Amino acid sequence: MGRTSKVVTSGLLICSLAAVSVPAGMQLVPAFLPQDPAAVAVLPAAQEMPTTLGEISGVAPLLSTAPLPNEAALATDLKKALTYDAEGTFGMYVADAVTGQELFSQAGETAKTPASNLKLLAAGAVLRTLGPDVRFSTDVVSGATAHEIVLRAGGDAMLASGESEPGSVMGHAGLATLAQQSAAALAAAGVTGPVTLTIDDTLFTGAALNPKWTDGDVDAGEIAPIFPMALYAGRVAPEVLTGARPQDSAVAVAEAFANALEVAGVATTGAITRGSSPTADADTTPGQAKPGSVLASISSATVAEQAQYMLAESDNYVAEVLGRMAALKLGLPASNDGAVAAVRQVVTELGLPMDDVVTTDICGLATGNLISPQKFVKLLSLMLADPAADIGQALPGLPIAGLTGSLDNRFVSSTQIDGAGVVRAKTGSLNLVTSLSGYVINSEGRLLVFSILGNGLTDGAAAARPVVDAAAVVLARS
Questions:
Q1: Model confidence over 386-396: pLDDT tens digits?
Q2: CA of 22: how far to CAs of 12, 16, 56, 118, in Å?
Q3: Taking the CB of residue 382, how many other CB atoms lie within 10 A of it?
């Protein structure tokens, strides 16, 4: 019986999906997609699934002896799948994850515009540089006088206006919680009456908007000016994914914090201003908090969780902020140029030469980015070589075909369902670009790594996605 005709329980699907996250040295049975949507609804988040076969009850690991695909047959099928009647070209590279052997290349070494596949470089660089367990803090510090407080940005772009939600990535740190802590600290210091509020967002430097982002993309809400703190990844609300964004995310955070302070019983007075946090003063009045001392603090989700969110949801704002935080760690300016330099430096150190790669931003939205499919396959292979290592912790963020993230509504047609559950890949789309880079467990249980970049698509990215998906399905069936 073929895979497309089978219906499995949600429990079996969980085991199958977990298989997509296993180390490259392990081979396992293909996954299935249930035809009952309710079975999908109860699945745990990808990062909560088991990551090794030893954690999956009743499923035994297979040795890496599964046969490789027949290269001639694979080439025939992939070239057919990549045939496109409209204008545009597709580059594709496929390798075996265990041996690194090239299995297929169609302009695989030719640099093309990657769109959001560029976030794979950011994920690897950020995890290696910052470490997967690091969190960013947003602090309230005492000002020059007892009635002055400073809201100090620390790189958390995923703040929420309400209380902190420890189980969430977006909104892990909440401004209501910060306000409650601040009110208690001020009361303990004997501060009564209104306070003035200053923003310290000096962590980042340079232009908040990359000049290589088109006005159309900015106006459509694909990106917003980058600041070292933001609500909901620079959005007006977590569920609002398109349209106008705040043009000053630091001010948006400060205004929401001021409102939360009012609710917590602390009034604010005067206009919100910008400035630097004061240096701690040893000659403070007894009982008064020293200027510059931390009154309250909230922490973000971990870097690993943020990087996984960035990949799953293809979040441009989070990518740009993480890139700047990596630049800071390396002693580079926390600007677009510094972030680009940081990512290039770390990716090179990982063993991926960047001499023939052009990068102009972190998220892949800017014009001018150029990289080959082969480079993405190499990077993904490095991640798969040790999923438990720092860069390997990007893998749980790759969307699962037909189920999660930016692939949740793809690979669901009758002709493509063989890719559902077994293809896990980063998507990318621009007006003339579509891309898909990731890995797949094929019908023999072999783990294959691939990258497909389509450029010059005058009919638009959406029209060309079926071509890209069809090629991935060929790999799943091989």
A1: 888 999 999 99
A2: 16, 11, 11, 23
A3: 18
